[in-house]
Amino acid sequence: MMTIEPPFSFTHSLQQVVPITDEQSANFFKYFTLFELKADEYFVRQGQVCNRIGFIESGMIRHYYTNDQEDVTRWMSLDGEFVTALSSFIRSTPCNHYLQAISACKLWVIDGAIWWEQYHQHEILRTFWVKMMEYTVIGFEERVYQQLANDAEQRYLYFMKHFPRFLEKVPQKYIASMIGIKPESLSRLRSKLAQKPIS
Q: Among 34-43, 68-77, 143-152, 161-170, which range has the highest average pLDDT?
């Protein structure tokens, strides 16, 4: 059986969180399989149980739900990131939203049963999981605060500061949805900010 070396971004993403060695990363990566999505195809649909975790080598995936026939973008997962429908994956319950590729995606995917097996066997993966949960909860709490306490301009400035990759890669209509405004409102806001003097 041919051994496939993990992409640099896979090991790098792990090492941003935990002090994992290249050898440990390669041993973990052997449980992942290549999974490709075309634009508009789904990683998981609402109502399905998400029983896998993916690592995005290239492309991006949109997390969204529908509200009164309108799509509402919750989040975007970009290249170099892990992706799953978290509550569905942890609880083995139907997913309450969609995960859809908005461009061609190359992912490496691990089955949930194998993930949990490796999780219980390797302390480094347990540490990785706990830290990722911490980042996720803190990030979610901060985004809820931004949505409830700040106006659209403050929310967009927060995005500019904390998620510059989104501004480089994600279509504006999805950014508008994530901060709770219409695309045309975001266009006006960006024009307004562009006219402000740099302090």
A: 34-43
Please classify residue 46 by burial: count the beta carbons closer than 10 Å to its beta carbon, then call 0-12 exposed, 13-18 middle and 19+ buried: middle
Confidence bin at 1 (pLDDT 50/70/90): very low
Interior CA angle at 171 toward 165 and 177, to 5°? 100
The set of residues, in sequence order, having a beta carbon less than 8 Å from that of 138 and lying 6+ positions away, is none
Q: With H, G, I as helix, E, B as strand and everything else as coil, classify residue 21.
A: coil
Q: How far apart are CA 179 and CA 78, in angstroms?
A: 18
Share of residues in the chain with pLDDT > 70 (%): 97
Spell out the domains of the chain, with CATH numbers in brackets: 8-121 (2.60.120.10)
